[in-house]
Specification:
The chain is α+β, with helices and mostly antiparallel strands. The protein is built from 1 helix and 2 strands. It has a two-stranded antiparallel sheet. The longest helix is centred in the N-terminal third of the chain and has 15 residues.
Length: 88
């Protein structure tokens, strides 16, 4: 069941896939910085006018969920213009 956390430090990253501990705090902190809130501490209610572009890849070690270990990764987060539309 989904659960909302008001503080990034309360998110149980140790119970999630290894890549989540890399991209999720970066994305939430970047989002909050663009909303002029506390740097990565308290999470604001999402504002639809502040859109971010998220591009990432993760290369895991062999062993799948048993090892849950990342060899290499890339994360790029950029703020998009309000007039920019994205296509899936």
């Amino acid at each position: 069941e989904p659960k909302w956390f008001h503080d990034i430090h309360d998110i149980p990253l140790d119970q999630m896939f290894a890549d989540d501990s890399l991209w999720l705090p970066k994305l939430l902190t970047h989002y909050n910085n663009n909303n002029a809130s506390a740097v990565g501490e308290k999470l604001d209610v999402p504002n639809p006018s502040n859109k971010l572009s998220f591009n990432a890849w993760f290369h895991f070690h062999a062993g799948g969920t048993q090892t849950n270990s990342i060899m290499h990764h890339f994360i790029q987060i950029t703020k998009t213009s309000p007039n920019t539309s994205s296509h899936s």
